[in-house]
UniProtKB/TrEMBL annotation:
Gene3D superfamilies: 1.20.1260.10. This is DNA starvation/stationary phase protection protein. Belongs to the Dps family. InterPro entries: DPS_DNA-bd, DPS_DNA-bd_CS, Ferritin-like, Ferritin-like_SF, Ferritin_DPS_dom. CDD domains: DPS. It comes from Haemophilus sputorum. Residues 18-157 form the Ferritin/DPS domain. SUPFAM superfamilies: Ferritin-like.
Length: 160
């Protein structure tokens, strides 16, 4: 069995890096969507939501960097072109969205997709005995579950 420089199975690490590149793509598209919500939100909830979306996209951009660095740590190259992201992202671009309802729904749906994808990676990382990736996914899941709860509470009519 061939090992990576950090002692993980090379074949499993190759598959894990591919899954992380797909997650990176999902994060990048979601980040762009949330940035758009921040810019374009209108209505009575403008001030509150404008600030909340900025908080979320700031966190997302940190996670994008962390995921790319994890791919590098595994010995692979993170994708960096938006054309690559659009091919594999599990989230679609959300264009010209400006109502609170649409923005909240888009954010809730995006978080739900991320949770599903991260749980898949968490399970695979566990099988591959990759504690670093598993820990990273576990941390993200914990944070985002709370955000889902808060967005669901804020938007009773939103459906992911």
């Amino acid at each position: 069995m061939s090992k990576t420089i950090i002692g993980l199975d090379k074949a499993q690490s190759t598959e894990l890096a591919a899954k992380l590149n797909e997650l990176l793509a999902t994060y990048q598209v979601f980040y762009t969507n949330v940035r758009g919500y921040h810019w374009n939100i209108k209505g009575v909830n403008f001030f509150e939501l404008h600030a909340k979306f900025e908080e979320i996209y700031t966190d997302l951009v940190e996670k994008v960097d962390e995921i790319a660095e994890r791919i590098l740590t595994l010995g692979y190259t993170p994708n960096n072109a938006y054309s690559q992201y659009l091919k594999v992202s599990r989230i679609q671009e959300d264009i010209a969205v400006s109502t609170a309802q649409e923005c909240l729904t888009g954010t809730l749906k995006g978080l739900t997709v991320l949770l599903e994808q991260q749980r898949e990676i968490l399970n695979f990382a566990g099988e591959a005995e990759d504690e670093g990736t598993a820990s990273q996914m576990s941390d993200y899941i914990k944070e985002q579950e709370k955000l889902v709860w808060m967005f669901q509470a804020a938007c009773q009519t939103c459906h992911a």
